[in-house]
Design goal:
Oligomer: single chain
Strand content: 15-25%
Helix content: 40-55%
Radius of gyration: 53 Å
Number of helices: 19
CATH architecture of one domain: 2-Layer Sandwich
Shape: elongated
CATH topology of one domain: Nucleotidyltransferase, domain 5
Length: 649
């Protein structure tokens, strides 16, 4: 039963008093009438007062119940209105999200909000057991006030409040109005992961950096590579070409002096790149090429130069580095002497590790072609000398056999076998022996570069790690951070499959081969024609720096139109000194002799740069495209130059 604060309990008349009165009334003893009347009046007044108090309390309780019902009804209406407004807010938020606008969530009202509402209703904070406080709590929780009488204890009330709070959360969650809080343990987990990854990162960086420094030298670092500018041009000569010496040995490790007897450079080539045009050419020099200018060699062969100097190391780390550099420098000097060009960078690769590099990249794809066969795919093409393809065998043992015009996937072992193929003991497709092997090595390198430029080393960590392990102990270069960054950019921009291979033994447009073979003191050598490197110099100049007249590649015949002996031969040398090609010399026909001046006749009219050069040599020459019939025997020559009397004088 509810009781208003401050109200007093009615007085009760004891049963003994009433019985006493009744006994007095029935007693035969004569009593004072006035006293009896007074007692009766007092009893009736007390009963009447008690009755009125009870009626008043019932009225107050009914009024309180009516007010509670009214508040409940008002609260339900308010909740309905809030639900309608909340639905509208949800719809507005959805529209705002579509428009890219996000509303800030409203703060939920807690105890302070309820306290403020209680103050607005004029309710003072009383002890939790008072009627007003219970009515207020009942109104807040939307329950009957009598429910609080069942949980008067503080502990029970807390438990009940907790249950009610969980029930309200569940209701809001079901209605989509409540987002459950998550226990934020993830910062600690993240911190642990960061610490672990940080430690692993330091170890990985040190490992990668050590491998990288082995390749490029102690002055470089992986951080330097990451922050290097890939727009920095490579070293180049005055005509814009960068020449890179690449040579290979057969040792299994470059960390010590105990190679497996494979320190001889059986593979040597120069790769020349024009950074502006993307033109790339490669030329190999034979391992048995006669070269006795380096006094360190024993037999005077080119493949001994690096070995002779490197083998002087004492096995210590510093000594190995020193003689590695010395061996590279001496071999580069030999190339500069033979080819007549400047070498800007050196690369020493262990051919025995090629199989590891190829396997790390997942293999390479090549296509073998013969003669006029062509291939339009992205695979690297390799030309062979037999229409059946390439086969290597020794007696009855066939090591491999690949057909032409088919995509062949090579793993590391297969690629190394092709790079070494020369048909020394049987097979077909490599008729030129060691020269064929040098060409095959160039094409395998091209295939490796092609595969590397299409491999994403960021996502393919296995390929990146395998490649690093393979090259880290098997590659030494003179490239620095900016050089490697620039090479990485050029590798993406230049199609390596367009690399032109220059041969020293093939005939180019009627030109004789630059090298031949011979014996000296019982030793087999590859010899430069004429035992000088002059023709090789001219060949390289014309092929590498083919701009203007060199690009036209015209053939010229020089004829002597006078009685002065040797005039045609002397002028031939003058013309060749300007980078032009003189195909033949001889005497002019009788009808064209004894003329004054120099006459230039063109069988081809699309050679303007060549004509300009000839006019620079012979300023007063007469140029004509009407070739006399007496010169018909020179129809295969592009330009005919006749030296007359005027020039002879």
């Amino acid at each position: 039963m509810l009781r208003r604060a401050g109200s007093q309990a009615p007085q009760k008349v004891s049963k003994s008093t009433i019985v006493s009165v009744r006994k007095t009334e029935k007693a035969p003893v004569v009593a004072d009438s006035s006293r009896i009347a007074s007692v009766r009046r007092s009893s009736r007044e007390e009963l009447e007062e008690h009755k009125q108090q009870q009626i008043q309390k019932n009225a107050e309780l009914a009024k309180a119940q009516q007010q509670a019902e009214a508040r409940k009804l008002a609260r339900r209406r308010q909740q309905q209105q809030e639900q309608i407004e909340y639905s509208e807010q949800i719809m507005n938020k959805s529209s705002n999200r579509e428009l890219g606008v996000i509303d800030k969530p409203k703060k939920k009202k807690g105890f302070l909000g309820r306290k403020k509402k209680a103050e607005e209703l004029g309710l003072e904070r009383e002890e939790s057991g008072s009627a007003a406080a219970r009515e207020f709590l009942a109104d807040m929780h939307d329950v009957d006030a009598t429910d609080f009488d069942e949980v008067p204890a503080k502990e029970k009330r807390k438990s009940w409040n907790k249950q009610q709070k969980q029930a309200r959360k569940a209701a809001r969650r079901d209605a989509g109005r409540y987002k459950q809080k998550k226990h934020r343990k993830w910062p600690w987990v993240l911190l642990i992961i960061v610490v672990i990854l940080g430690g692993c990162g330091v170890l990985a960086y040190n490992y990668i950096n050590e491998k990288y420094k082995k390749i490029t030298g102690d002055d470089s670092s992986i951080l330097g590579l990451l922050f290097a500018d890939d727009k920095t041009p490579l070293q180049a000569d005055e005509k814009g070409r960068t020449n890179i010496l690449i040579f290979g040995t057969e040792g299994y490790s470059m960390d010590g002096s105990d190679y497996d007897g494979g320190l001889l450079t059986d593979s040597m080539m120069m790769v020349s790149i024009n950074q502006d045009t993307g033109d790339i050419k490669a030329i190999s020099l034979p391992r048995d090429l006669h070269y006795k200018k380096d006094a360190c060699t024993a037999t005077g062969k080119l493949n001994e130069v690096f070995y002779c100097h490197y083998s002087q190391n004492d096995g210590s780390e510093e000594s190995i580095k020193h003689y590695e550099t010395e061996g590279q420098d001496h071999l580069a000097s030999a190339f500069e002497d033979i080819l007549g060009v400047e070498i800007h960078y050196k690369v020493h690769v262990n051919w025995g590790a090629m199989l590891q590099v190829v396997d790390a990249l997942g293999g390479i794809d090549v296509v073998f072609l013969y003669g006029d066969q062509t291939w339009d795919g992205p695979e690297t093409t390799i030309e062979v000398s037999d229409e059946r393809g390439l086969q290597e065998q020794d007696g009855y043992t066939v090591y491999f056999s690949y057909p032409t015009q088919q995509v062949i996937h090579l793993n590391g072992t297969d690629a190394l076998s092709v790079a070494r193929a020369r048909n020394g003991h049987g097979g077909y497709g490599a008729i030129s022996g060691n020269f064929s092997r040098e060409y095959f090595q160039q094409r395998i390198i091209a295939a490796l570069v092609q595969k590397a430029r299409t491999t994403n080393f960021v996502t393919d960590l296995g390929a990146a790690t395998g490649l690093l392990n393979a090259v880290g102990d098997n590659l030494r270069t003179t490239f620095k951070d900016t050089d490697i960054k620039t090479l990485m950019r050029l590798a993406k921009e230049i199609n390596i499959n367009n690399m032109e291979t220059l041969s020293t033994i093939e005939n180019y447009d009627g030109e004789a081969a630059l090298m031949t073979t011979g014996m000296e003191n019982g030793i087999s050598y590859v010899l430069p024609v004429g035992m000088t490197y002059d023709r090789i110099h001219n060949f390289i100049q014309k092929r590498l720096y083919a701009d203007g007249a060199a690009a036209e590649d015209a053939t010229i015949a020089v004829l002597n139109g006078t009685e002065v002996a040797g005039l045609a031969s002397s002028n031939k040398q003058t013309i060749e000194d300007e980078g032009l090609t003189v195909d033949s010399v001889g005497d002019a026909p009788d009808d064209l002799k004894e003329q004054d001046g120099v006459f230039i006749y063109q069988n081809r009219e699309d050679l303007p740069e060549t004509i300009k050069k000839l006019q620079a040599i012979y300023p007063n020459a007469t140029v004509s495209s009407e070739v006399p019939e007496s010169l018909s025997e020179y129809a295969d020559v592009d330009i005919i130059v006749i030296i007359g009397n005027g020039y002879a004088n």
